[in-house]
Design a protein that fits this description.
This protein is an alpha+beta fold. The chain has a single domain, classed as Copper binding periplasmic protein CusF (OB fold (Dihydrolipoamide Acetyltransferase, E2P), Beta Barrel). It is built from two helices and five strands. The protein has a five-stranded antiparallel sheet. Strand 1 and strand 2 form a beta hairpin. The longest helix is centred in the first third of the chain and has 17 residues. It is globular and about 35 Å long.
């Protein structure tokens, strides 16, 4: 009986681990938009996050390296490590994310 329960738990755990989850982006409408230019350093496809070494973003922040969520799969698919990009940074309260990605 105990063995059956253990096997059932293991099967459930394996099924849960094998399930691929789509990242959720519930940011609402952006309150502000800024233009970004930078170099893609790293990509985290499981969360659709790109680490970007960006130039100064006029009106928002100085040049630095940051991680940006990229909610749209079609935008994330354009990114490659080492690529120089332009994109729109959307800002809503404490959330920020990239759209309109263009590889230069």
């Amino acid at each position: 009986m105990l063995r059956r329960h253990c096997l059932t738990l293991l099967a459930g755990f394996a099924a849960a681990c094998g399930t691929k989850r789509e990242p959720r982006f519930d940011y609402g409408e952006p309150k502000q938009r800024y233009q970004l230019r930078g170099k893609v350093l790293r990509l985290r496809p499981e969360a659709r996050i790109a680490s970007i070494d960006h130039e100064k973003i006029e009106g928002w922040m100085e040049a630095m390296t940051m991680e940006f969520p990229v909610p749209r799969p079609e935008d994330f698919a354009k990114l490659r490590e080492g690529a120089t990009i332009r994109a729109t940074v959307n800002v809503n309260d404490l959330n920020y994310w990239l759209t309109d990605v263009v590889v230069e």
